[in-house]
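hey so u asked for the seq, here:
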Amino acid sequence: MAEQSGKTVLAVNVGNGLTRFGFFSGGDLLGTWDAATPAAITEDEARAKACSVVDEILGGYRTPDGAILSCVVPAHANVWARALSGMAATRALVVGPGLRCGVRMRQDDPSGVGADRVANVAAAQERYGAPVVVVSLGTTTNIEVVDGTGSFAGGIIAPGLMLGMHALGRAAARLPLVELRAPSSAIGRNTYEAMQSGLLFGEAARIDGLLDQVFDELGCNALVVVTGSNAELVAGLLSHEATVDEGLTLHGLARIWYMNRG
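ran it, structure tokens below
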């Protein structure tokens, strides 16, 4: 296996709200770091952040053999690609057309599939086999389906939990921002609990309903893997049994790097 080469790689997943870093050695995840995604970033700032993350994870800076980027913020993509290439021993890989991911794509237009979605299905197939369904929680709630043949069959994209919470606060002036914590009952005894119920129990009910439809179309049940922001919280509210893997996207990025460069 390429992962056994011992090469080190920095994986960076730039999302709309959160940027996640993971440092791998020989395929093993040594540590992670999360940072808020800023509205704008310079190449120098991105490189400095990546270097400080490596230093924090390892307790001392070490130049990685390579780096790989998944970015859903178009204005940040080239900046991060240049920054990572400037700090690694080889030019950084950017997830997109032309890179092997180990999963056959059954999309109408594979080039239009988000890089984070590709990383998630690549990791899920390797770590859990097929069929498998990934529920990724972030700005959007994504459900990705790997069918029984190990192919990426497609998925579902819906507004995410945090997006719903902030939308309530913006659209309804008298509604407060709430802590994302499940109340003791679905029937809230006050506005705060009613909002928590709607957000969390509502998100879980939506995911459960969508999973039922996915399984019906697949013709079988599949392992469900939940990742992303608040994964542990939401997975605990689902009626479907689910495995939480908060590092799934980073593992997928590392897998893609080792397949293409390792």
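The mean pLDDT is 94. The longest helix spans residues 191-218.
lmk if thats what u needed
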